[in-house]
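INTERNAL AUDIT FORM
Audit reference: QA-55
Scope: verify that the stored structure record matches its stored sequence.
Auditor: D.O.
Record contents follow.
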Amino acid sequence: MTELLTLSGVHTHIGRYHILQGVDAVVPQGQTTMLLGRNGAGKTTTLRTIMGLWPASSGTITLAGRRIDAMATPDIARLGVGYVPETMAVFSDLTVKENLVLAARGGPPDGERLQWIFGFFPALRKFWLSRAGALSGGQKQMLSIARAIVEPRQLLLIDEPTKGLAPAIVGALIDCFAELKRSGATILLVEQNFHAAREIGDRVLVMDNGRIVHRGDMAELTDDVALQERLLGLSLESHQ
């Protein structure tokens, strides 16, 4: 198991609040690692710290053996890290096409890659020349994810992609992530929909109070209701 991303003793302060309190985590290359935990555990802060949006107060973050904890966000992105925030960040005044053209750092989006994306998210083809701000919430989430995967990335950081979405759209997202996983992509994914987590997760990290309190195979957590209730306060079956 090759380690692509490693966090060692990472602390993050936001103002006077000490959010991450010594995070130690490994994200294996070519696998989907789920980052689970109760609300307020520090999951979003972890992703934002990796991406350089909130600087780590101490500790180290390495990507493919290279330290990135002191790097600026644009430089981290240039290393091939894609980020999908839970806020569904898109450029509202630009069209769907323009959003994807901007996200493709290597030049115009590859036509074959676009057709692959449209297979999961046909609404993006339909609204290709429409303003992103006019899309529904689910369509904006599709566009946000499409922006991150419009070209191959070394690492994808994805924060609660299924939050508030209709079941049909959730199903399309699960299919998309499963295909990304089959293609060898490395994903660190925060998710509250445990059906989705169970379907696409290879590994799992569970956070509590700014620390990783459990690490292991997703299948192990899926099969152990007592462990689920101890770590998450509920069983996966009761939280679909």
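Auditor finding: record pair retrieved intact. Residues 167-182 form the longest helix (16 residues).
Action required: none
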